[in-house]
Amino acid sequence: MLIKRRYCWDLAEHSTTDEKTFLARRKLVKAMGFFGASMGVGTFFKSSPSMASIDVKSKANPYPVARNRQYALDRPVTEESLVTRYNNFYEFGSHKNIAPAAQSMKIDPWEILIDGEVEKVTKIDMDGLLRQVQLEERVYRFRCVEAWSMIVPWSGFPLRALLDLAKPTSDAKYLRMETIADDAYMPGVRQTWYDWPYVEGLTMAEAANELSFIATGIYGKPIPKQNGAPLRLVVPWKYGFKSIKSITRFTFVRDRPKTFWEKAQGGEYGFWANVNPSVDHPRWSQATERPLGNANRVPTLMYNGYGDFVASLYTGMSRKLGSELYR
């Protein structure tokens, strides 16, 4: 007999938007002409930064995609306007309202380099990459190290699929990822006190974990620029700064990479950055969080509620690394 395992963070069906309703709404939007019909598409995009990265060519827009309900949650999805207008993206500034500035980012064409300890170095554009993966939607918790949180329906594919494409050798112990850094339109990159480009990394075991996800869309649409277009990492059991945006390079390496925030302020933002409510940030508590759109704080969960999936990755490491695992 097949028994469905119910996790502590499972979301009741009545708490999510019905898929038929969601798809019907998308059809209505298309009928209204927001995807290339002759009713002022340019004006609509200009007034709505969250939609600015949508390709009006339907051939290049496969969204929405089917939701994988294995990753349902115990909280409702955060309002889209909050997720697309409250962003960290230091390449465009240190404030949260970076959506207008981010629209200057060039995302077409977009080439991705896969190199390092792999069978063959590969350069591939977004269209070529998307032809080789199966897109799905996953609803994930997102917990920022600044102690705010949100629930986001990400569209994309498991990072494991990119590992299969890259064919890393047995010498690969870590995956290093790199964000675009163009000071022609990214004012933050002109600030010399940071070591650009933005770099993040995972162990190979973390990268291969089923939760690790490459997002190419949100809310049934292509991902906006301020949220990391055209592709970003999502690792929901870690603090949000680990989920690197606008990735241009995946490099498989033998040695642990030094990450962007680790270089900038390693005592506060380390390599591991696993969510743990009992280990505070040096300047604030991590025991609770503020969901976007909700004035009431809620308790933070160990590994952001994903311990069933990832706790085994760190068995035996706590004694050796201690609080480093959570910074």
Short description:
This protein has about 325 residues and is α+β, with helices and mostly antiparallel strands.
SSE pattern, N- to C-terminal: HHHHEEHEEHEEHEEEEHEEHH
Sum up the overall morphology in one term: globular
Strand content: 15-25%
> pLDDT average, as an integer?
86
Low-confidence stretches: 1-58
Number of strands: 12
CATH class: Alpha Beta
Ends distance: 42 Å
Count of spatially separate domains: 1
Count of helical stretches: 10
Structural class: alpha+beta
Give an overview in words.
By secondary structure, the chain is an alpha+beta fold. It has one domain: Oxidoreductase, molybdopterin-binding domain (Sulfite Oxidase, Chain A, domain 2), CATH 3.90.420. It contains 10 helices and 12 strands. A hairpin with a 2-residue loop joins strand 7 and strand 8. The longest helix is centred in the N-terminal third of the chain and has 14 residues. It is globular. The protein starts with 18 loop residues before the first helix and ends in a 6-residue tail after the last helix.
Task: Give short descriptive properties of this protein.
alpha+beta; Sulfite Oxidase, Chain A, domain 2; 7-stranded mixed β-sheet; 5-stranded mixed β-sheet; globular; disordered N terminus
